[in-house]
Specification:
Elements lengths: L3 H29 L26 E6 L6 H14 L5 E8 L11 H7 L4 E7 L2 H5 L7 E5 L5 E5 L12 H10 L30
Parallel strand pairs: 1-2, 2-3
Antiparallel strand pairs: 1-4, 4-5
Length: about 210
């Protein structure tokens, strides 16, 4: 006859395993839904910026850390947005680049993905100069200004880290560029800190 301890041992192991899985999933969900720092973009286009801004033409700027895995989703959402807004906006994806590193440092898969989006120009931001001007602290931070350089939208275009699909930021920019109003001109930004050489470890399979 098996002892009481022998009978309960498999159950105890199973319970411990379920607890570990549940804890891991909880950490993953919490990480995925934790927004990065919100830098609050300036209400007017910074005069010191070297990013092209044509008078009378709306301008969209996305700031990216080239090694942030979460930002793949942001770049993917931008591709979809540009497909619906061709000819309505001048778009720029600005990649952080440490001044003491080689040119290829910022030429990651994200760089290649951004350059493949029609209507988007890709720029290198040495030591995060432009990111600082626009207060872009988190990778994926997307800003929209109107033709007079007035801020229209400030935030992210994903619903969580590495999340593809419907989100308030995408909808707001799409509406604004098509001459509609939006009730949500600010959204959280989900990504890694921009002004760092490395990026935070990826917290999920979708990142």
């Amino acid at each position: 006859m098996k002892s009481v301890t022998g009978r309960w041992w498999p159950i105890a192991v199973s319970l411990c395993w379920l607890l570990a899985v549940g804890t891991g999933l909880g950490v993953l969900v919490n990480y995925s839904n934790t927004a990065g720092r919100d830098g609050m973009a300036p209400v007017r286009w910074p005069a010191q910026s070297k990013i092209p801004h044509v008078a009378g033409e709306p301008a969209l700027v996305m700031f990216v850390h080239p090694r942030c895995p979460c930002t793949r989703a942001s770049v993917g959402e931008l591709a979809g947005l540009m497909a619906h807004c061709q000819g309505l906006v001048s778009a720029h994806v600005v990649f952080f680049h440490p001044g003491d590193s080689g040119e290829q440092w910022s030429h990651s898969d994200l760089w290649l993905a951004a350059t493949a989006i029609p209507g988007v120009s890709v720029l290198s931001d040495e030591d995060g100069r432009e990111a600082r001007l626009f207060h872009g602290e988190t990778s994926g931070h997307t800003i929209l200004y109107d033709g007079q350089g007035r801020l229209l939208f400030d935030g992210g275009i994903t619903a969580s880290r590495g999340h593809y699909g419907d989100n308030a930021g995408y909808d707001a920019i799409n509406a604004l560029l098509h001459g509609k109003t939006t009730q949500q001109a600010m959204t959280p930004v989900y990504g890694c800190p921009i002004l760092e050489r490395g990026s935070k470890p990826s917290g999920g399979t979708s990142s």
